[in-house]
Amino acid sequence: MIYIGLTGWGDHMDLYEGVKPAEKLQTYAGYFPIVELDSTFYAVQPESAMRKWVKETPQTFQFVVKAYQGITGHQRGESTFSSKEDMYHAFKQSLLPLVESNKLAMVLCQFPPWFDLQLKHVRVLRSVRKQLADFPVALEFRHQSWFQPQFRNKTLDYMREDNWIHSICDEPQAGLGSIPTVLEPTDIHKTLIRLHGRNVHGWNGPRNGKSWREVRYLYDYNHKELAEWKAAITSLSNQTKNLYVVFNNNSGGHAAKNALTLIEQMNLNYNDLAPRQLDLF
Q: Is 77 exposed, middle or buried (0-12, 13-18, 19+ CB in 10 A)?
């Protein structure tokens, strides 16, 4: 099965004309069968919020949950948790409503650009995977060293050994802080594809006083590029049972349009989406 969606549901304004903020998730679920939940990166979400989102989405809807920043080493400053054990416990507890409702597609562990290939970082990966052993977990690198030619196959073999789902990326090739597109699954059940855009000039930092959110993911995939991804996804679907594709190129609001175009190109029909409100005028 091929599932296509977006990172987050709040910022895709072309979907929400006349929609109240509280109704955005229900509206989003009328277009896409999955979403990447990124608020979990900034703070461990209360179970009450998770239960609310479960209730607002169709029975077959699924969430890709981004791991809390303290897990992947992004956090700066003092932790809000007294220990790593408390942090993991809180994060895992927050996932229970999704697990119980069969709406957890996977947890996504995206490691930072400075997380390069060295022994101490491999040990970190093993520790994280052990802590999250009860969940399907995707792994995304941001440092090129993991996929340098001499290490590429060893990285993929390690991911298979430790039961990581490969998060395959489409992103600008902009030095060590970016990775190539490696079209190779590491799990026969699930593979994640994240389309970040190809804005090479904005990838490594903002310019002219703009924030990184305004430029890093500013990209509009053209028809040819989407057709290339259609072919790649079709090929990957023969190697893994379920493919989850999320568009993250939303600095300029292009993600929803690109995702809907790819759904149309691939002739995908999702029968269990939320009902859409009829536009009577």
A: exposed
Those residues whose C-beta lies under 8 Å from the C-beta of residue 228, and which sit 6 or more positions away, are none
Please give the tally of structural domains in the chain. Answer: 1
In tens, the pLDDT along 137-175 reads 999 999 999 999 999 999 999 999 999 999 999 998 878
Burial of 182 (0-12, 13-18, 19+ CB in 10 A): middle
Phi, psi (rounded to 5 degrees) for 212: -65, -30
Within a 10 A sphere around the Cβ of 74, how many other Cβ atoms?
16
Residue 280 lies in a domain: no
Domain extent, residue 190, equals 2-265
Q: What CATH number is attached to the domain comprising 72?
A: 3.20.20.410
Q: Establish if 250 belongs to a structural domain.
A: yes
Quick: pLDDT tens for 172-210: 887 887 899 999 999 999 999 999 989 877 667 655 555
